[in-house]
Amino acid sequence: MNDMSALHSIIPSAPPPLEELDLARIRADFPILRQRVHDKPLVYLDNAASVQKPRAVIDAVSECYSSYYANIHRGVHLLSERSTAAYEGAREKVRAFLNAASAQEIIFTRGATESINLVASSFGGQTVKAGDEILITGMEHHSNIVPWQLLCERTGAKLKAAPFTDAGELILEEYERLLDSGPVKLVAFVHLSNALGTLNPAKLMIDLAHARGIPVLVDGAQSIPHLAVDVRELDCDFYAFSAHKIYGPSGVGVLYGKKALLDAMPPYQGGGDMISLVTFEKTEYADLPNKFEAGTPNIAGVIGLGAALDWVNAIGLERIAAHEHTLLDYATARLNEIPGLRIMGTARDKAALAAFTMDGIHPHDIGTILDREGVAVRAGHHCAQPVMQHYGVPATARASFAVYNTRDEVDVLVAALWKVKEMFEL
Amino acid sequence: MNDLRDLYQEVILDHNKRPRNFRILPQPTHQANGLNPLCGDRISVYLDIEDDVIRDISFQGAGCAISSASASLMTEALKGKPVAEIEHLFDAFHDVVTTECECPKGLGKLSVLAGVRDYPSRVKCATLAWHAVRAALEERKEAVATE
Ligand SMILES: Cc1ncc(COP(=O)(O)O)c(C=O)c1O
């Protein structure tokens, strides 16, 4: 102890980073992280695909099923009232998390994919006509491409994509030019690219579209766990995300939409819960948000999402982002030490992940060898084949970070990558 | 690392680095493409069949070490073989990469891919070229997918 205090007196005291603050405690919240795979400690770096769940979320789902589960909005009995209160409580948590003006603007879906399909089908079906255009970017996930292609096929509209540079940055002049080059009825873009890590200048892109009267959907599937999002400050018209990427359960997603837009849109699916009166002649639709929530939803999953947001709030997204940023900087420097390794996506504004290739070694082989070292990464096209085409590669390997990852884990990744090289040396 | 060496044997790494019969046949009698949607890998196979014998066979495309080496080894194994033997060889090969069978005789170098059986997610890589050959023989136009 004396030695320690002597040390303290000569080392100037800087505030400890999040890592030293409570990373051990944070990791202890995730039961799954304690295991070994192939006899090595699990190093989970596939967080952009889906992130692991803290005890609080697992418990919230389990508590719902074991103590108060019932269908919502229907029963007069106690359990239904409790379930309804918990479900609607989660909606309020999402509203607060996004700083939306009203809980009516929060629609629960099955995931970001369904949220985008809802807008394409309902808003798109109503607004987009033959000859109109929809503008996306070249770095979209397939779930922000295909729904628009389907809409274009149905309506005869045209889909355009704003290109990006080799660094993975959107070319803003091109984006602006494409906004003006035809009757664009909707802009849809990814906030944080899952294939490149690029953080797009959302506010600027939205302002440019709005200056031309064009509404904007933001695909927030990747941004939601990594940066604080304020939909009113962004002024986006729609924002879509999935619970499973922000420590919540899979099978639940959110669509935020401005009330005026949602009010004017036709329902997406028909069924129970979305009506106020049904006769065989005519149906009157329920008010928001129920109009867009036909059928029995993933009740426990939504409640789990609420618990996940509480958990994230208790740590603070700013602190999470700062920690992940430090990790990414460290990982980038260490990865660049490996000869023949090329990082795909070097945008100045970047978050949470590093996608890369290695000379002469296919990402699938990298993935398999890393797995045997206990390191889980994604190897493939990341559902963003146009991005792969841009770089002329079939696939990349991707290490993506969450709040519970550590510098030591980055070291394990890097050591394992050296083994990959060794394995392939002939 | 030892168990990984069972998968990435030297023969496999060698065929990955220097794939044999890696070219386009100018006038194939049969041709087809194979696609692994999981990773986006594509390969094309070309066959020149005369009197029910594979006179020449080649492939092109980009893939992981397992799919490239498997394609390369397959072309070596099939060249000069009667067409009637392909199905039999594919069956035997499929057994080797998916089950704990004794390696059937007659597979020759193809049995270096036996290590794949411990990596279920990689079986599709090892069989992609074979699926493409089968499609070529059936004269299917669209790319065959492994799933
Ligand atoms: C950028 C982006 N958009 C959309 C999605 C689709 O999310 P989900 O599959 O949860 O619907 C993902 C998931 O990987 C994504 O990364």
Structure explained in plain terms:
The complex is a heterodimer of chains A (426) and B (147). Chain A is α/β, with parallel strands linked by helices and 426 residues long. Chain A folds into 2 domains: 157 residues, Aspartate Aminotransferase, domain 1, CATH 3.90.1150; 257 residues, 3-Layer(aba) Sandwich (Aspartate Aminotransferase, domain 2), CATH 3.40.640.10. Chain A has 15 helices and 17 strands. In chain A, the strands form 5 sheets. In chain A, strands 4-10-9-8-7-5-6 form a 7-stranded mixed β-sheet, with helices on both faces. In chain A, strands 13-14-17-16 form a 4-stranded antiparallel β-sheet, with helices on one face. In chain A, helix 8 links the parallel strand 7 and strand 8. In chain A, helix 4 crosses helix 11 and helix 5 runs parallel beside helix 6. The longest helix of chain A has 21 residues. Chain A is globular and about 75 Å long. The N terminus of chain A is likely disordered. Chain B has a single domain, classed as Sufe protein. Chain: A (Alpha-Beta Complex). Chain B is globular, with a radius of gyration of 14 Å. The complex binds pyridoxal-5'-phosphate. The site of pyridoxal-5'-phosphate has 13 residues of chain A, from helix 5.
